[in-house]
Amino acid sequence: MTYTFRALLTGAALFVGGTATAAECIAPANPGGGWDFTCRQIGKILYDIGQVDTPVQVTNMAGGGGGLAFQSVVNERSSEEDLIVAASQATATRLAQNAFGGATADQVRFLGAIGADPGVIVVGADSEFQTLGDMLAAMAADPSSVAFAGGSAAGGFDHLKVLQLAQASGIEDVRSIKYIGVDGGADAITQTVGGFTQGMTGDMSEVVGFIQSGDVRVLAVLTEERVPGFDDIPTAKEQGLDVVAVNWRGLYVPKGVSDDHYQAWADKLQAVGESSEWAEAMAANGLAPFLITGSDFDAFITQNIADVQALSREIGVIQ
Amino acid sequence: MDIAANLALGFSIAFSPFTLMLAVLGCFIGTIVGALPGLGPSNGVAIMIPLTFALGLDAVAALVLLTAIYYGAMYGGRISSILLNIPGDEPAMMTCLDGHPMAKNGRPGDALVISGVASFVGATLSTIGLMLLAPMLSRVAYQFGPAEYFALYLLAFCTLGGVASKNQAKAAFASCLGIMIAMIGLDPNSGMARLTGGNLHLYDGIDFLVAIVGLFAVSEVFFFIEKHGKQGALNIVLGRVTVPWGEIWSTRWVMARSSVIGFVAGVLPGAGASLGSFLTYVSEKSIAGEKGGFGTGVAKGIAAPEVGNNAAAGGALVPMLTLGVPGSGTTAVLLAVLVTLNITPGPTLFTDRPDVVWGLIASLLIANFVLLAMNVPMVKIFVKILDLPPAILMPGVTMVSFVGIYSLTGSYFDLLLVVVFGVLGYVLRKLDIPTVPVILGILLGGKMEKQLRDAMVLSDGDWTYLFSSGISIGLFIAAFLGFIAPMFLRRILRKPQVPDSA
């Protein structure tokens, strides 16, 4: 009896001790979104494949479209070595557009991306547009005749995809293209299928269910090559428009960690990215492979932010 | 036939002892969570999420536990509404209007039984509705564009004046206050910060749960402090609980109508249980007319909102499961769980994972019977929880409110906001300004603005776009009548009422 009790106490002490040193992953949004998914999946696989000894603790810190978590990491937790933070293209876009209250990308260290949600342009199944060319021709004739719905705010990444396509096809007056930012991809589809908007711009994962149910037609996927599993969906590139836009899913760590620690985390992330568990999670969620870690990813981010900044300036989202 | 076969599959999953145990456990926890002021279905479910992962539950088991808590909280919310006049959760706020008066008239047992049966009817009918109509009703969402949503939200605000207050000017002021608070945060179209004073904590706006807990729970605590907490929180003695069969039978048509209205309100994305209870109460009040005695503690006034909010709870699952669009705050939390469990809600969920969908539906049907048993014959257990001296209950309310909010938002800033809203609620109630429209303003103001601005973007600023469909015109007319009618009714019916009140 006493023995059992003592064993329990020891167990409890070990448990408490264990969690105290467990790695923490901050999802800068409420449960359910992409960042939450990133934290929970990566955290789970890290533990399952033995890269960490204790389960990764996921903390949701919603606010300011990720800005609150970014500021908190920069200002209060800049040297914590067991801290990882979920990030995506949205993080980079907002940094590029100075939407994090003056924070810049070099205040943290970007660790890597292990998957990407390909951008898509979607219309309702009964839409008059059969190809991306049909749609862009209608927009060339009257830019305000085709309205889009997407899951990001005006000026956000979903909006930029449409503007990039319009620019690539030679439409000059991109500012008169109508865009409404709704609450996530499913809402955007609902508006489009209901005929309130003519097109939907979003990520592949947001439309998978609707493709299978036959409610929508995907005019183009914004990747270099067709996405495995969705081989009948043409890329924008093969329709003559050189636009590639993927919503990568990845992590950053605080600025103050040592190079050794940074490399150790990058290796762990690489291991997750190469695991069969992650391959399954990607397939189930409509993600395409996109594995870049460490310094290569740092370079990718720098370039990406510069590109988004240039485009945003051109279309007047930022000064 | 298809449904029968599917349902058989569902019951074969739901009747496993472990799943059954989870459903009962969920019902029990849910009812307590619902009954405690401030804690509602969404924070109840949110608090339990870590537990489901800690227990290593599979997808079906986790969903059964969490939706049983959801339904349980919807039942439990009425208990504190009736006995304390504090809504246990936000959808239960309409139940205060007649439930508490009936309890004060010496019939708390009847009020609890009528509302319990009403909850059962609403929840069961809407679960059956979910089962039969989910694939079909998912199409309703396609009929609602920005103009239609704007008209719907306007309807909610306009009809509020007649319900929440005897003074429409005060109700309108309260609504405006709520809408103003809803404007805090990022501008939905341009992404620019508004009224935040540069504080990043305010960028996402003010969480309506924070406002609810502050305005209802914390301000209630202030009132107790003012009264020196002399009398018990529960100044209503619950005697023998008997079933008033005749009265329940007299509400049968109310229940039938309210089930339909509540269910439809739940199906609409973003509308949810609060709108369901609100619309059912308003429509029954107008059907009954001034002679119906709504607001004085009548059975119909208790049955309508309880049927409405429970029916909406089932309805809200329809868009969540079929479209991945949550119909309410709680289903948004449930959606988060589904995604985490690697289940993608959408039109294909019913064919891809029949075990999940039908196991869930069967469990919900079972949970309803469990909840009826817990909430009618065994309701005293839950009342005991509320029947504590204020010296214990009020600090408890404060603690649970703060813990609940912190568990949901994880932000100390929100705890400060709870106190601010508590003071605001105290001041408003002292000035006899209703707090319910403030909540509605915070809840719907931002969405209403967004829909209006989206409508303007799509139409190039043409206001007639708002009246471009039959649905929106119908809703606008209903909104106009809803705002005007109570003024005339009040004027016409004031005179005969005087002898009654004298």
Question: Can you give me a brief rundown of this structure?
Answer:
The complex is a heterodimer of chains A (319) and B (502). Chain A is an alpha/beta fold and 319 residues long.
Main attributes of the structure:
heterodimer; A: 319 residues; alpha/beta; D-Maltodextrin-Binding Protein, domain 2; 2 domains; 44% helix; disordered N terminus; B: 502 residues; mainly alpha; two-stranded antiparallel sheet; 21 helices; 2 strands; 74% helix
Q: How is this structure best described in words?
A:
The complex is a heterodimer of chains A (about 325) and B (about 500). By secondary structure, chain A is an alpha/beta fold. Chain A folds into two domains: about 15-115 and about 250-315, D-Maltodextrin-Binding Protein, domain 2; about 120-240, Periplasmic binding protein-like II (D-Maltodextrin-Binding Protein, domain 2), CATH 3.40.190.10. In chain A, about 45% of the residues lie in helices and about 20% in strands. Chain A is built from eleven helices and ten strands. In chain A, strands 1, 2, 3, 4, 5, 6, 7, 8, 9 and 10 form a ten-stranded mixed beta sheet that branches. In chain A, strand 1, helix 2 (about 35-50) and strand 2 form a beta-alpha-beta unit. In chain A, helix 4 crosses helix 11 (about 295-315). Chain A is globular and about 60 Å long. Mean pLDDT of chain A is about 85; it is low at about 1-20. By secondary structure, chain B is an all-alpha fold. Chain B has one domain (about 1-490). In chain B, about 75% of the residues lie in helices and about 0% in strands. Chain B contains 21 helices and two strands. Chain B has helices spanning about 1-15, 15-35, 40-55, 60-85, 95-105, 110-135, 145-165, 170-180, 210-225, 245-250, 250-265, 270-290, 300-325, 330-340, 350, 355-375, 380-385, 390-410, 410-430, 435-460, 470-500; strands at about 185, 195. Chain B has a two-stranded antiparallel sheet with strand order 1-2. The longest helix of chain B is centred in the C-terminal third of the chain and has 32 residues, at about 470-500. Chain B is globular and about 55 Å long. Chain B starts with a helix and ends with a helix. Residues about 495-500 of chain B have low confidence and may be disordered. The chains are: A alpha/beta (about 325), B mainly alpha (about 500). Chain A: This is C4-dicarboxylate ABC transporter substrate-binding protein. Chain A: Keywords: Signal. Chain A: InterPro entries: BUG, Bug_dom1. Chain A: Pfam families: TctC. Chain A: Belongs to the UPF0065 (bug) family.
